[in-house]
Write a structure and sequence with these properties.
This protein has helices spanning about 35-55, 75-85, 90-95, 120-125, 135-150, 165-180; strands at about 15-20, 60-65, 105, 130-135, 155, 160-165. The protein is of the alpha/beta class. Strands 1, 2, 3, 4, 5 and 6 form a 6-stranded parallel beta sheet that branches.
């Protein structure tokens, strides 16, 4: 059987860079969400500005999101719920509402790679560099970043586009990902396509 070059037309883009938006489609209606939301809204504005630049540069955006609804929901339903039901997360979802051209992957666990189609999609796009943004830095962003590093993707994790409930913990995690995962954590305003790769320090494998 002939190999499909583009996932049967479902991944027509080709790009060495992809933007991942992790768990940004969120109603923020859970315990502790109010504190997280206070950090997330300013970050969402930074993510929206970055996405506008990457959209203009032809860099594909992939929404990597928790699957609420016990596998009975879909991504468009999640967007509608957050906006139409006037949830706490509505301002963020309105800022980061996906375009028709954007991709999405629903994940069952913390990592965007675990039991999802993300790696296959990235391979068909030809992506080698991933820009990771979203919520939260100490859980889903971290797990996704670690799995991406193990797959030899180069990581950009703009420090102003990733938040956690605890700001100090978030700062520690960013330093950890910079040191161990060799991530570039420059602020989003410095990420202007086409991207130049910063030299990374040699990092010992622990």
């Amino acid at each position: 059987m002939k190999k499909s070059p583009d996932l049967h037309g479902n991944a027509p883009d080709k790009s060495s860079i992809a933007l991942l938006l992790i768990d940004v489609i969120n109603d923020f209606e859970f315990e502790g969400a109010e504190t997280l939301f206070q950090h997330a809204l300013p970050a969402a504005r930074k993510i929206a500005a970055l996405k506008q630049r990457t959209d203009q540069a032809g860099i594909p955006a992939i929404y990597v999101n928790d699957n609420f609804g016990r596998w009975r929901s879909d991504f468009r339903t999640l967007v509608s719920h957050c906006i139409d039901d006037d949830t706490r997360g509505r301002p963020i979802v309105e800022l980061l509402k996906p375009r028709q051209e954007d991709y999405f992957v629903l994940k069952p666990k913390q990592s965007g790679f675990y039991s999802t189609t993300l790696d296959l999609l990235l391979q068909h796009l030809g992506a080698k560099t991933l820009i990771l943004t979203g919520f939260t830095g100490d859980i889903c962003v971290l797990f996704t970043a670690a799995d991406a590093h193990l797959r030899d993707y180069h990581l950009l994790i703009p420090r102003d586009c990733v938040v956690s409930q605890d700001k100090e913990e978030n700062d520690r995690l960013l330093k950890y990902m910079e040191r161990v995962l060799e991530a570039d954590v420059r602020p989003s305003k410095e990420i202007t396509p086409p991207l130049s790769r910063r030299p990374t320090k040699s990092t010992p494998h622990l």
